[in-house]
């Protein structure tokens, strides 16, 4: 796959299902703790899509979609996974010193729409199935690609940065401030990359958890600079949720299509 052109648009116009208004459905991963010490530890992670952060009330995230990356880049199998109607949970054993990435990032999904016998048809699946079923040959078909990443980071011992090495595909997170080294009242800077390049001009939404207990959500809206960096200062201690997205055009195997990419992460701000 090769992206030829990509225009960044406001995230609020594209990731309605995960960001923006207080009534939107938000996908999240919430570990039982973000930092640990010792030689080996376990962490339990909740995974859900909900209206309120971080209270399950809509839909579970499939544990089969989870990838855990250890500090040395190896993949770690999750344990004791269970999927309920509105929440999933799983455990991760951590036996390496450093930072682990827990993510739902996976292969892109493809969508198609066309008119057939006066009726609007819609399709969703993999690129291989799209080709095999001849969807790409339908008269007037419009094909789009969507890719969503939902992540969190947990550190055993001292924070490390190996798991943030970019792959060059989609929206990716890089620390300026390490996400497991965030404190209230101190400026925090994160960087976003899009297909390996600085993702400039992206709108980023940051929201502290437990919003169901506040009259106002306390939402922060910032924009990435020319280097893909955005800066904010968390005022409340506790878990935070951030999200952003981009929209543009791409060519996949010679087929032009729209592409939508979104990124969501959960981190923690500790009191000084």
TrEMBL record:
PROSITE patterns: FILAMIN_REPEAT (PS50194). InterPro entries: Carb-bd-like_fold, DUF4198, Filamin/ABP280_repeat-like. Keywords: Signal. The keyword Acyltransferase does not apply. One of its GO terms (molecular function) is carbohydrate binding. Residues 1-24 form the signal peptide. This is DUF4198 domain-containing protein. The lineage of its organism: Bacteria, Pseudomonadati, Pseudomonadota, Alphaproteobacteria, Hyphomonadales.
């Amino acid at each position: 796959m090769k992206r030829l052109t990509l225009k960044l648009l406001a995230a609020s116009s594209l990731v309605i299902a995960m960001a923006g208004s207080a009534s939107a459905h938000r996908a999240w991963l919430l570990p039982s703790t973000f930092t640990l010490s010792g030689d080996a530890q376990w962490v339990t992670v909740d995974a859900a899509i909900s209206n309120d952060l971080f209270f399950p009330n809509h839909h579970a995230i499939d544990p089969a979609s989870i990838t855990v990356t250890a500090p040395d880049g190896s993949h770690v199998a999750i344990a004791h996974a269970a999927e309920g109607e509105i929440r999933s949970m799983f455990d991760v054993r951590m036996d390496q010193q450093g930072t682990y990435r827990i993510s739902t990032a996976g292969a892109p999904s493809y969508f198609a729409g066309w008119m057939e016998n006066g009726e609007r048809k819609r399709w969703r699946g993999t690129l291989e199935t799209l080709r095999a079923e001849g969807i790409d040959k339908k008269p007037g078909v419009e094909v789009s690609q969507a890719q969503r990443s939902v992540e969190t980071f947990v550190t055993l011992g001292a924070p490390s940065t190996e798991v943030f090495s970019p792959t060059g595909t989609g929206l990716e997170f890089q620390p300026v401030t390490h996400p497991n080294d965030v404190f209230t009242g101190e400026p925090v800077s994160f960087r976003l990359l899009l297909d390996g390049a600085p993702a400039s001009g992206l709108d980023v939404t940051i929201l502290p958890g437990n919003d169901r207990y506040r009259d106002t959500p306390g939402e922060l809206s910032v924009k990435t600079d020319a280097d893909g960096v955005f800066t904010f200062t968390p005022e409340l201690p506790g878990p935070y949720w951030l999200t952003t997205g981009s929209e543009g055009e791409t060519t996949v195997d010679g087929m032009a299509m729209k592409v939508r990419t979104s990124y969501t992460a959960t981190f923690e701000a500790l009191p000084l």
